[in-house]
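thought: fold this chain, then report.
action: predict
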Amino acid sequence: MATTPASFPPGGTWFDTLKKSFVNVPIDASNNNAIPTSDFLEAAESLTTLFDLLGSMAFTPVKNDMLGNITKIRTFHLSSPTKTSTLQSLVLTELATKKHAATEGLLWLTRGLDFTATALRHTLSNPASELSNSFRTAYTTTLKPHHSFLVKPVFSAAMSATPYKRDFYAKMSRAEDEAKVREEMERWLGALEERVGVLREFMGRKEAKW
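observation:
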């Protein structure tokens, strides 16, 4: 069922509906910034409900793309939970078998999360800018360079189908409390950005290539 303000607790926001927040996904600094696979995937899956609030079928391909990559990663993780308990160990374990379906899935999921984080950061940092501009700017700098000419129009259509910012904030809160939404988004977004940063650095290493 699609996420709607009616499903939020009284006085709550979209952030209260998340099964797992990126705020609660640990980073083990003592173990090369290892990120727990299961926690991360649950937080990423929770994030995809954000696209329901954008209120357009145009975002369905974006959401489905992220969910498809989550499935690829989770499938490999469940095949060997102990060896793939962190995202970094999952990549190294899979690449050692000369396969890369889950690793490629993580690469694309990271790009999708980076796109989302960049769009929302632009939204928070530019109060006068509408969502369509924020998402279009984010797409240009994150996903577009990696998309084929067949995929670009699909995603570009979604960027143009975003609601007005005031309507988006209203959908994010049952009480239409924009100040509360912005405060909670800042905390959640900071956590997302930090974890995306860790993964971008790791996925850029030679040992994470296939």
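thought: worth noting. The chain has a mean pLDDT of 93.
final: tokens above.
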